[in-house]
Structure formats: C-alpha cells, structure tokens
Amino acid sequence: MKKLTIISSVILSSLLILTGCGSNSSKKSNVTSKVKVVKQSSSKKSQKGVAKKKSGSLWNNDKDSRLEDFMKQWGEVMNQTYTKYDGTNNIQTVSGMNYPQDFNSATVNGQNVSMAWDKKGTGKNDYNVVAIYNYNKSSSSSITYAFTLADGEPIVLVNEGSGNNWSETKNKSLKENFVNIFDGKATHVEKPKVSSSSSTQSSEDLGEDRGGYVTTPEAMRGTWYSKGEDGMKKLVISEHEITLISADGETNHAVLYKRTKDTPSDVSESERQSKEEWRSAGNIGANGISMRGWYQLQGGGEHFFTHEEEINGQKVPLVLYGFGANDLTDYVYYPSEDLANQQSDAKYDDINYKF
C-alpha cells in the first residue's frame, strides 16, 4: 500500500511538470507569432505614419502660417497675388468653381477620387486638403493650388482649367517647399530665370513640358471686334492669354505656353480635356503670335498680327486673325464695335485675305 502511494505521487508530479512545460511552450509560441507580425509591418513608411498619428494631427497652425508666408513670397516672385481659403468662406474662381465645396466632384488626372477639406490632414480621403490658394489671372482664367496630405504624404495639386480636374504640380519650388514646411525645415524662394534670347518670352519651368509663358505684343492687347454675316465676334488679348468669342457667345480661351518637348501621340481623351485651354505658342517677329492645340499633331494653327490702316483720315490699329497652314487673314478685328460695324464690308489692299 505504501509503495502504491509513492508511485502515485511520482506519476502525479510528472504530469504536473509536463503540463507546466506545455503551458510555457504555448506562451512562447504566441509571443513569437506576435513579434513576427510586428516585424512584417515595420517598414520605414509605416513607422513614419505611426509616429505622426500619435501626435493627433499632421497639420497645425504653425505649419499653416509658414505656408502662408511662403505663398506671399512666392507669389511676389511669380508676379501673382493668391487668395487663401480662410476655413469658412468658399474661394470662388473666375471659372465658376467654389472650393472646398466643389472638391466633392473633383477628379485627379481624369480619375474619380475622394478629395475634401481636412484642417488636420488626418482624414480618410485620397487627398486631405489642408490649404487652398487661388489666383485669378484674368476674367476667365485662374490657377488654384490645393495643398494636400495623401496617406500622410505632402502633395500639391493644381487646377488651371475651366473644369474641376486636378493634377500634381510640376513646379519644383512649390513641391520642395511644401515638403520642407511639412517636415519642419526651412523654405527658400528662388526668382525664376529669364531667357536672355527673348525679351518677350518667359523661361521659368512651369512643369508638364511648359518652359514658361509666351508673351503677346503690347500693341495687340485689349478687346477687339469683327462684324460678319454671322454677327459680332469678339477677341480679348492679355499678356499671356487669348480669348475668342463667337457671335453666338461661344468662348474659346487659350493660355500661351512655350512647349519644351515634342508633342506626344499617345494621349488619353481625359488628358486632352484637362489641357483644353493650353496652347503651344510662339512669337512671330515683333508683331505676331502663333498657337496650336497643346496635343495637336496635324492641321494648321492660328495666328494673330497687329496691323494699322488709315480709316476716315486717321490711323487705326487692327488685329488680323487667321487659321490654317498659311498667314492669310480670315477676320479683321477693330478696337470698337462702331468701327467694326462701319467697316464690316471693307477690304484693304495691303491685307492678304483667305477669301
């Protein structure tokens, strides 16, 4: 009986030891598994995101003030005055968009995205907009910048068209300085270089194959009128833009850029539409401008020339407009509607008309 008791005690002790080992083994296995999971998700990008999220905000008042100071300096260098979204009242562009309200229907490179105002930059949108700046270049053209955080990364989007399609800016200064502000580093504004080969053409790099704006001759700028069988047409020319308005009110607006690369042939329809107002342009001597569609491969372009005629004993400035592969004139534009009406049937010997 005594031997049986001793044997039972030994067996019981062995079972307890085995059970304890099994328990320790299970715990060790769980710890090992958790460590593996952590290691698998510990990329530099993830660590960076986790560190930022702990602060509760990716964007703050200090960064916002630094961006505002930078945009004032940058705008002065670019000879542009930007309006900042104040967090309450929508910014209205001359093309009729209201931001941030219209972000809900915005596209980026023609693709549908989620884009919304988010003061802290921590939202779940594809693009969380932390700052908006707009510059109305003319009565029909504007540049709008949306400073965004996409998955915690600073990205500057720009919209220069008449619609609501955005693209990432190619402007090196804007991109680098927004990153610097986001990372708490110093900003630096450089003055754009001006071409020494032409006093009428800017050579700053605007991105997307644009080597700067092409500048119209001063004598060409203003509002001009041409009367034809279809009614009164209108032509509005500013420093870097040309707008043709048909007799029935249809508007064709063009922003003049110097193209730095050959025109590509494989361009999507959405990309074409996003650059609908862009023109590849150039100066023709001291009194002319030529332009073609940004992605135009075939067909002639459009051309404009300053001209002068003696009308009723006075010298009157005119603008001659034509389209096609030659320099022939399709329409003559006058500086007033009255003159356009009076001279609607006039033909001048020193103008080469197409018809």
TrEMBL record:
Q: Which domain of life is it from?
A: Bacteria
Reply yes or no: does the keyword Signal apply: yes
Residue ranges under compositional bias (Low complexity)?
24-44
Residues in DUF4767 domain copies: 57-182
Q: Where is this region: Disordered?
A: 24-60, 189-214
Biased composition, class Basic residues, residue ranges: 45-55
InterPro entries noted in UniProt: DUF4767
Q: Which residues form the signal peptide?
A: 1-19
Q: Which Pfam families match?
A: DUF4767 (PF15983)
Q: Where are the transmembrane segments?
A: none
Question: What does the UniProt keyword field contain?
Answer: Signal
Q: Does the keyword Signal apply?
A: yes
The name this protein goes by in its record? DUF4767 domain-containing protein
* Origin species: Ligilactobacillus salivarius SMXD51
